[in-house]
């Protein structure tokens, strides 16, 4: 039977799950172009326009940071350190799983792989609405564990004030420079470089539609972690799930903003109906109901299917950022599902743990991007490079003959002659032939040698 939708999303989107806003791309392009030409002056103009923020310097000095740290309650500092310990532990385990190696694929032919960290990274820490401390851990700390030499952190002011707790998190995560600068102006400044903000090679971190569009337009000029849109949650629940837990966890993500998809897929009509009823009741006393309620109204869905196999299959079609499994056997989802940014198994594990404290990275693919990529991790800050060395003349001659034949099959004569040179030089040491025939451009002996396998 077809799934039954007890609640459907109200907003029409394009094929990628995006509510189109044609004006965003135009505005972002204008900001980037302006900053590219006018540097700091334009950065100041846009910061004042968008954030009402134009201090003498956007950069925080060491003395500034010391003073700010004194303003942050001790409990918050201790909690930041504990969370960062979790993030660091997991990130270090990820890095340890990436091994440099070298192997001798045939006598005298050595191939190797190295993982080199990116030199300069820009980390964008959103915060125009809330102080998002956790994004500092996920971007700055992860980059530092990867071995990135220099990390710039940018975060916006909040209602004209310094976000002291976020700054503390950025500093403790290891940021080398901290700028109180938000929006596309921050992303553009880091990507193109200005008089006071160094150009980076890579930008990581989530943000609003303008930040996401800025990263999209700048991709190629710099690397980016991934294209991330509004956060998403999808819950797969069976007939044993607690509807109160379902409703609470749907709203925990819906409060991120007014455009957060919150989806329930269950094999129990009763669980679905009670969950919908409880969402409406919980919104009455939820301080962030102004955002969560709009998300639930416009993007919330509740779907009833026949069985859990159908639920897992439908969830895979959504390829959601966060998938939460509230079933009697939650680990079954690990075998049944493939498309998700992160999966949270069982009632004891909620998406909010991943967002705030458990240690895995919360910068994750949205808008069905989980079909082709995972989230931010240590490996995103590493460039996996290869090297080759042929130490044996006989091996080089053998490869030269193979190269000659392979290149001529593609009509790449220049490539073939590079192989020919080594085949003849190292196999027969025919220096007279090399210095005479090769210099004269006579390709006939080389063609015959390659064709005859000599």
UniProtKB/TrEMBL annotation:
The keyword Oxidoreductase appears for this protein: yes
Alphabetical UniProt keywords: Amino-acid biosynthesis, Histidine biosynthesis, Metal-binding, NAD, Oxidoreductase, Zinc
Keyword DNA damage appears in the UniProt entry: no
Enzyme class: oxidoreductase
InterPro entries from the UniProt entry: Ald_DH/histidinol_DH (IPR016161), Histidinol_DH_CS (IPR001692), Histidinol_DH_monofunct (IPR022695), Hstdl_DH (IPR012131)
Cofactor dependency: Zn(2+)
SUPFAM superfamilies with a match to the protein in the record: ALDH-like (SSF53720)
Domain of life: Eukaryota
Catalytic activity: L-histidinol + 2 NAD(+) + H2O = L-histidine + 2 NADH + 3 H(+)
Alphabetical list of PANTHER family matching this protein: HISTIDINOL DEHYDROGENASE (PTHR21256:SF14), HISTIDINOL DEHYDROGENASE HDH (PTHR21256)
Function description: Catalyzes the sequential NAD-dependent oxidations of L-histidinol to L-histidinaldehyde and then to L-histidine.
Family per record: Belongs to the histidinol dehydrogenase family.
Listed name of the protein: Histidinol dehydrogenase
């Amino acid at each position: 039977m077809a799934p039954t939708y007890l609640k459907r999303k109200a907003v029409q989107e394009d094929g990628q799950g995006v509510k189109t806003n044609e004006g965003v791309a135009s505005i972002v392009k204008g900001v980037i172009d302006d900053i590219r030409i006018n540097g700091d002056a334009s950065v100041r103009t846009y910061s004042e326009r968008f954030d009402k923020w134009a201090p003498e310097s956007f950069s925080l000095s060491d003395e500034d940071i010391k003073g700010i740290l004194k303003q942050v309650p001790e409990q918050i500092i201790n909690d930041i350190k504990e969370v960062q310990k979790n993030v660091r532990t997991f990130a270090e385990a990820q890095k340890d799983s990436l091994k440099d190696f070298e192997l001798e694929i045939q006598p005298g032919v050595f191939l190797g792989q190295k993982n080199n960290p990116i030199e300069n990274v820009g980390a964008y820490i959103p915060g125009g609405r809330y102080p998002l401390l956790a994004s500092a851990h996920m971007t700055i700390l992860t980059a530092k564990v990867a071995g990135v030499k220099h990390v710039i952190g940018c975060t916006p002011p909040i209602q004209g004030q310094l976000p002291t707790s976020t700054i503390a998190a950025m500093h403790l995560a290891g940021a080398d420079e901290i700028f109180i600068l938000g929006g596309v102006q921050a992303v553009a400044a880091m990507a193109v470089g200005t008089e006071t903000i160094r150009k980076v090679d890579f930008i990581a971190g989530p943000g609003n539609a303008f930040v996401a569009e800025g990263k999209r337009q700048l991709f190629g000029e710099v690397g980016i972690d991934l294209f991330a849109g509004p956060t998403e949650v999808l819950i797969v629940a069976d007939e044993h799930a607690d509807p109160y837990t379902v409703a609470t966890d749907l709203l925990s993500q819906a409060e991120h903003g007014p455009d957060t998809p919150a989806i329930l897929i269950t094999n129990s009509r009763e669980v679905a109906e009670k969950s919908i009823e409880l969402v409406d009741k919980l919104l009455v006393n939820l301080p962030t109901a102004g955002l969560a309620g709009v998300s639930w109204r416009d993007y919330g869905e509740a779907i009833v299917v026949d069985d859990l196999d159908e639920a897992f299959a439908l969830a895979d079609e959504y390829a959601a950022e966060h998938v939460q499994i509230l079933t009697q056997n939650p680990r079954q989802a690990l075998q049944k599902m493939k498309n998700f940014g992160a999966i949270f198994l069982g009632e004891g594990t909620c998406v909010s743990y991943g967002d705030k404290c458990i240690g895995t990275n919360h910068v994750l693919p949205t808008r069905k991007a989980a079909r082709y990529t995972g989230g931010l991790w240590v490996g995103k800050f590493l460039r996996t490079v290869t090297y080759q060395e042929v130490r044996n003349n006989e091996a080089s001659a053998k490869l030269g003959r193979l190269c000659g034949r392979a290149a001529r099959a593609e009509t790449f004569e220049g490539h073939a002659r590079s192989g020919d040179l080594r085949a003849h030089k190292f196999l027969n040491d025919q220096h007279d032939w090399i210095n005479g025939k090769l210099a004269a451009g006579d390709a006939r002996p080389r063609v015959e040698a390659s064709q005859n396998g000599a």
